[in-house]
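Can't attach files on this board, so I'm pasting raw text. These are the components:
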Amino acid sequence: MSTPGTLTSERILEAAEETLRRFGPAKTTVVDVARALGVSHGSVYRHFPTKADLRDAVVDRWLRRMHPALAAVADGAGSAPERLRLLLWTLAETKWTRAQDDPEFFAAFAELADEARTPVVAHVDFVVAQLTKVITEGVARGEIASDDPAATARALFDATGRFHHPSARSEWVRPRIDASFEGVWTLLRNGLLPRGSS
Amino acid sequence: MSTPGTLTSERILEAAEETLRRFGPAKTTVVDVARALGVSHGSVYRHFPTKADLRDAVVDRWLRRMHPALAAVADGAGSAPERLRLLLWTLAETKWTRAQDDPEFFAAFAELADEARTPVVAHVDFVVAQLTKVITEGVARGEIASDDPAATARALFDATGRFHHPSARSEWVRPRIDASFEGVWTLLRNGLLPRGSS
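---
Top answer:
Structure tokens for the assembled complex are below.
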């Protein structure tokens, strides 16, 4: 048994990810996570009072790991349309890679994410905020036409759901999904450019 | 026991839909369907030699039921962009309504459709062909810009996956999904119009 002092939330979340990968969400209990750590389930509950809290923290941790890369693209060099493309591509490709390399974890993650409204909404808001920032800059520079950058950002996110929503993962067969992304992006890019440009 | 003469494929498929609605795909067997019809499972196998054949026929029947309405929109009046919008809307809204009115059947259907590649591919091809026809007409009339109407049609289909793919059904909460559709459509419409028009 570890002492409570050594049991950090981070260690619990790592153990929870590993337990989920092995048993799946339906069969993973707080007791399993505690057993993997060699602690009592009471020790886990002190960090995550309910199973829903633990579930939300696992999903939140995984989604937040993508955020630095997305923010770097949004704040990076290149025209606004190029950065939008790279933002959406990074969001999608990170998930394709993880779903392919670690299908057991990704299937568990997708099932949890379907229930974990709070971290998912926070993640979507973060991505839409990055897109909005780039669109707003693009409008100021005359690279993009939009009366409402936040609404345009949300539309871009929704129109690319097939590429980044975990429930669409059965469609992520490469290279077919790459070609599908390019086709959708071409259409969206045309929709973003100011009329009269090409 | 009915005589084989009275047991049509159509009757079997009706019984299969009802059995699926009640028990779900995992628990539905050919024997259950035969029992609901009061026939031997051998009689069902004469029409559908494998469980996969029966599954594909159920999915095919449901998807084909939408086709006359979609073809009527494609061949109907209105500008090409208006018809594309109505085609995509009809495709989406038919599924939203069914998923809401009959969630047990729709969940079963979604699960089956994930396995039933042949009828799903045929359905997607049908929808993309309708979109292609309208885009081709729109290009001829100067209402739409596209170098490759079939590729543009596929991109429209893919960019609206959130609205019509059964795996996205947890997102179909009205009126939020209606607003999302309008936002995506505005962007796609801008992407379709010839540069210089508005």
